[in-house]
Amino acid sequence: MKNKFLFLIMFFSVFVFSGCASITTAMWPEVEKEVVGEKTIVDEKVGYDYELKEKNKYFSVVGIPYCLEKAPVHKITKKQHRGIVFIVIETPVWGLGLADWALSYMISENSKKDEVIGYRPTGVKKECLEEKGAFPVAGSKVMIQNPDSGEVFWTTTDEKGMFSPEDVLGSYKGARPWNVFMNYKDENRYLTTVWW
Amino acid sequence: MYTKAFNLFCFFVFFIVFSFSLNNVHAQDKLKFSCSAQIAEALGKDVIEILKEKKGIVFDLKIVSSDTALKRLENGFSEIAAVTLPISFEMAEKGYVAIPFCKDPIVVIGNKSAAPDSLSYEDVRSIFSGELSNWSQVGGEKMALVKIIPCEDTGAYKNFERLFMGIKPIKYDFMTYCSVTTIPGVGAMEGAVSFISHGAAVKSDKIKIFDIDKISPMNPKYKYFQVFTFVTKGRPSDSAKELIDVALSKAGQDIMKEKGMIPIIPLD
């Protein structure tokens, strides 16, 4: 009785499930998703990055034009590979599942459409391709902060973009960290942290 | 036999449903940011919105206590942390960078039901050390004082203990895991009292913010402040720098001033 029941299940399953994976894959609507690609581009210049460099006993502020790295956003539409479970049932009976699997895979792959719909910033700054090279930032306001007390000291860079930390922090000699910022229009830019 | 057949049928149904629900997931690069709950409530979420809009930076934001935020940074689970505690000299020597960017008053808050308008410094100490048990003892209605405090790992607890309590131990009726959870707790419970950052408390209309010694937290003479600090392991990455710059920019400082906070790095 038990064997008969199993035989009936297997026998009917061959008819019920044969080709089901291919049919369900073909009939299923395409799935749409947006994927950020790996092949990045360097976009137009968006601003200047500022760096603090140490030379002898002086610090100098230099500006470097930077561009944003952007990654393509791909819109991928594809029929998903469906009905794997039917293949599992078909295969041990007559081996038809393998052909069904190959066909459904082919249907899925052939339906794939890849379209670039735009570019998204990756958050990484890159050197621009057209405007290159660093330049001294002259006459800029620089703030030096003691991170322990929060106290802020102000100074201004000379025509070479340089300033002497000793003139500003003379009374604070000793190895300790200092945060250096630059004031630019309506913004404060964090430059770096130095031990001085 | 029918049970077995039924089980077999259930297995197939489950398998079919499971196989249909499989989809690919694409992970994007994100700035891993651990933020103290007080800072997130007072400032962080607004600053993050500006960054998302202007720079397209995506965040993996984790809101935790200051202590946990520092530990996550130390263990490499975040690139930048915003905390309400100063870092130790040992951490600075190891190469952690601390950038204090804002001062925010720490305020005592109470349920509107029984609370007076002002408390003295000594009243606050007596309330939280358990010496006082009724609002009538500090000029309020006759109602029991219910002390709700944030847990000991939070910056709010440590700063309150340092600024108000000194060596007096804090006694409480309820303790919350997250510092900002005290706000809805105080709002909902009659006679409740707690403490929190002003920037986080100012949004709620169900609580009362007390003046201390008749000085409002918005008054420049108010003495009890906690400092909000960005911390990074080594020098900040480009995207962490962007976060710092936005917090220091005019837009960031306008948000701070609107909520009664004081920017540490002035614009001019």
Tell me what you see in this structure.
The complex is a heterodimer of chains A (196) and B (268). By secondary structure, chain A is of the alpha+beta class. Chain A has a domain at 137-196. In chain A, 28% of the residues lie in helices and 45% in strands. In chain A, the strands form two sheets. In chain A, strands 1, 2, 3, 4, 5 and 8 form a six-stranded antiparallel beta sheet that branches. Chain A has a four-stranded antiparallel beta sheet with strand order 7-6-9-10, with no helix packed on it. In chain A, helix 1 (2-17) packs across helix 3 (84-94), helix 2 (20-27) runs parallel beside helix 4 and helix 3 (84-94) packs antiparallel against helix 4. The model of chain A has no long low-confidence stretch (mean pLDDT 83). Chain B is an alpha/beta fold and 268 residues long. Chain B contains ten helices and twelve strands. Chain B is elongated and about 55 Å long. At the A-B interface, helix 1, strand 1, helix 3, strand 4 and strand 6 of A face helix 1, strand 4 and helix 9 of B.
